[in-house]
Amino acid sequence: MITLRIGIIGLGNMGSDHAKKLIRGTVPEVELTAVSDIDPNRLEVTRAYLPETVGFFGRPEDLMDSGLCDALIIATPHYDHPRLAIQAFDRGMHVLCEKPAGVYTKQVREMNERAQESGLVFAMMFNQRTNPLYRKMHELVHGGQLGAIKRVNWIITDWYRTQAYYDSGSWRATWTGEGGGVLINQCPHNLDLLQWICGMPSKVRAFCHQGKWHDIEVEDDVTAYLEFPNGATGVFITTTADLPGTNRLEITLEMGKLVCENNTLTLHKLSQNERVYCFESKEGFAQPSVDVSVVPAEGDNSQHMGIIASFAKAVLTGAPLIAQGEEGIRSLMLSNAMHLSSWTAETVQLPIDEELYWQELNKRIEESSLSKAQHN
C-alpha cells in the first residue's frame, strides 16, 4: 500500500495524541515520519514512545526541510497556524490544520489564498463533521424536505473548566497566547457545525463576558443573537462555568423541528408546512398534527482519525475531503464577529471589518497579562 508520509508540528495534548494513534497503525494510509516541538522537554517525552525511525526536530522549519515528510499536521498554538501552513505550502507540502484556522480572519484569508495558489491539499481538523448525528442533521436540512430554517438555538455549556485548568499555563486564556477564550478554544467545532448545517448568518449581536466566572482576561460566558439572510434568527450560548452543562442544538424549520441532545436526534415532523398552514387555517388556535420520532443516525464516528484518513486519501487518490481547509475561515468569522460585536457594543454585519477587528484585538494584546510579563 502506498502511504502518505506525515509530520506533526506541535506535541501538546492534540499533537501527541495524534502521534500515539498513528504509530499504532490506526490510519493505514499514513506513516508518521517526523515530529517537531520548540519545547525540548516535550520532544524527550515523545522519544519514549515513538520509534527510532521518526525524525525529531526542535524547529518546525527544520522538519519541513528534512525531506522526511510530504504532508503536515499543524497542532501548535492558534496564532502559528497560518504562518506554518504558508511555510509548508511554499515548500510543496500538503497541510492538515488543527482548529481554529487562526485567531483573526485577515491572517487566515492570506493562508487560504496561498493554499489555492499552491494547488496542494489543505484540510481542517473539524472532526465533529464525522459524527453521524450532525451528518444526519446536515442531510435533512440541506435536503429541503423540511423547508427553510426559521430559528436556530444552540446551548453548548458542557465545557466546564476549573481555575486550575486556566492556571496550568501562562499562555492559557490570554489575548496574547490564545487570542480569546471559550469561543476560540472550546467552540470552533460548534461554530463550524452551525455554519455547515445552517449556513452563515448575516448579522451578529453578542455579549462576551471576560473573566466572569474565572480569574482570566478573555471570555468565559457568551450569548449571541444571529440573523440569517432568509430572515431566520438564532441564539448561541456557551460558557466554561455551567455545571452540569448542556449541549442542545435545536433547528426549527417550516415542516418541523430537529433536536439534537444526549446523543439522540429527534424529529418533530409537521403534517403541513407551517407557513402555508398559518395563512390557510380558519381557526385561530389550530395546529397541524405532529409526528415525533427518533432519527436513526448510523455511520462510523471516526473523529480525528477519520479526518486524517480523509486527508491522506485526498492526497493519494484525489478523494473528497470531509472539511476543506479554506472552510476554516467561516467558524473563525463567527467568533471574530461575536468578539467585535461585544467590544463595540454594536450589531456586526458579516463579513466583518477585518481591519477593525485586528485593531481591537491588538488593543487587548497590548494590555494582556502575558504581554506585560514578556516585557518585564
Automatic annotation (TrEMBL):
Domain GFO/IDH/MocA-like oxidoreductase: 134-258
GO molecular function, one term: nucleotide binding
Location of the Gfo/Idh/MocA-like oxidoreductase N-terminal domain: 4-124
Taxonomy, superkingdom: Bacteria
Protein's name in the database: Gfo/Idh/MocA family oxidoreductase
Organism: Paenibacillus dendrobii
